[in-house]
Write a structure and sequence with these properties.
By secondary structure, the protein is mainly alpha-helical. Helix content is about 70%, strand content about 10%. The protein is built from 9 helices and 3 strands.
Length: about 300
């Protein structure tokens, strides 16, 4: 990763941490004050997001350090490890919140001051929506798994805030209707519905991170791009080259190329070097840190 991209990654993560701290404190204080399970969940989620963002920020700076004896192949593997931790923690929060909501449904519900909760929800929607838009835009410009995971976190928080606000507006209308006795079930019911929806996001994050940790085949779009570039070089190369393997680990793209020949002694070092430079020039255009390996095969 270039120095500019690394600086932008740190800047985005620092911005995210600062914003998450504000939402965490506000959500926890107001949620406990009005007695809302959903707002408390939102505050807890923001607090955990803050801790996870600080973890991502520390990992980002550590990953940028050069290779040494302890990490001879670099520190790129730490990125999917951090994302795995983030996804696991978010999954745990959603699971615990779902359990609390189901328990509340069967124990008489929860009475909430819908007017104050709605006002908080509107502020939350605006703030989380801006954070999601800003970080998602940066994620498109600078390829980083940590920034993409951060954008996913804020996406969940934004959608959560929208659902909370809409739910409290609905609860307020229920209190004005003949069915006002059922308004106490609005808060835990919203939590149940949101939990079932949001559980998908950390599961996908966990799946992608584990695929990288196991060095499995990356996304088809990446494989297609690599295949196209290798095929273009193969048409001009003096040797017969073939894509042997491609994996993505964090910000690194690891590509193994086989050079085929009937007699290994007939391959000129200069020809291999030209092929290597051509491959590196083309594959470096992809938004990853390239790790290219050439193998002579018969």
């Amino acid at each position: 990763m270039c120095a500019r991209t690394s600086q932008n990654e740190s800047r985005v993560l620092s911005f995210s941490a600062l914003l998450a701290s504000g939402f965490a404190i506000g959500g926890l204080v107001l949620g406990l004050w009005v007695g809302s399970l959903v707002i408390v969940f939102d505050g807890v989620y923001s607090l955990v997001s803050l801790l996870l963002t600080l973890l991502s920020l520390a990992a980002s700076r550590f990953i940028d350090k050069p290779s040494d004896d302890s990490f001879p192949f670099g520190r790129a593997i730490l990125e999917p490890i951090v994302i795995t931790i983030k996804a696991t923690v978010i999954l745990a929060i959603v699971t615990v919140s779902l359990y609390s909501a189901v328990t509340a449904l069967f124990t008489g519900g929860r009475e909430v001051d819908a007017s104050i909760a709605t006002l908080f929800g509107v502020v939350n929607v605006a703030g989380c929506g801006y954070a999601w838009w800003y970080i998602a835009r940066k994620s498109k410009r600078f390829s980083s798994g940590l920034i993409e995971a951060e954008a996913s976190q804020w996406k969940m928080d934004t959608l959560l805030s929208v659902a909370v606000t809409a739910g409290f507006v609905l609860a307020w209308f229920i209190t004005l209707s003949p069915a006002q006795a059922y308004a106490v079930y609005a808060d835990p019911l919203m939590m149940c519905l949101m939990s079932f929806y949001f559980i998908k996001v950390p599961l996908l994050m966990l799946k992608d991170a584990l695929r990288e940790l196991l060095m499995m085949r990356p996304a088809s779009a990446i494989c297609q791009q690599v295949n196209q570039e290798v095929s273009a070089v193969s048409e001009q190369a003096q040797q017969s080259i073939e894509l042997a393997a491609v994996t993505k680990v964090g910000r690194e793209l690891r590509v193994n190329i086989d050079i085929h020949t009937e007699k290994a002694q007939s391959i000129q070092i200069a020809d291999i070097e030209r092929t290597r430079k051509a491959l590196k020039r083309r594959l470096s255009a992809l938004p990853f840190q390239l790790q290219l390996t050439l193998n002579v095969a018969r």
